[in-house]
Description:
The chain has about 160 residues and is an all-alpha fold. Helices cover about 80% and strands about 0% of the residues. The chain has helices at about 15-30, 30-55, 60-70, 75-80, 85-105, 110-125, 130-150, 150-160. The longest helix is centred in the first third of the chain and has 25 residues, at about 30-55.
Amino acid sequence: ADGTGFKGGIDSQRPLYPAMLATLYAFTGHSLLAAKVLNAFWLALSAAAVGALGILGGSRMAGLAGAIAVLIGEDSVLFSRLLLTETGGTAFGVASVLALSLALASPKWWRIVLAALLLAFANLTSGFGLLSLIGYGLVALVTWRQRQGLKRAVAQSLLLAGPRP
């Protein structure tokens, strides 16, 4: 925001957000307004995905309340004005939960890969995605084991949240 880049916190910045910001700046020039618009875009996507999760969970009111909480939450308002990775990480994180819920309902390989890719993007954008891997894998394993047996459930869970080379 001061025109000095990611000073003082470069170690905590994940690589995808600065790459997205640099790409945006290549087209718009160095502009704090452009960064704020990018952050607003990520927050809007996050709100839409949270709303969809609420609706999938069976409650339109819960979806609406969650979307409003994302849009007017204190952290959301603060992060949208700064050059921080959390806005993009939140969008990819919520989208990965939405994709995982669809993959749990109908475990087709492309849905599992989509959930894994979105979770990977969440981790490349913000650090909380890495902490979700174990939980994702366990939820998937338990859910899929009940429907398909242990071997397929383990294979699909490793595809979703297993170790990466």
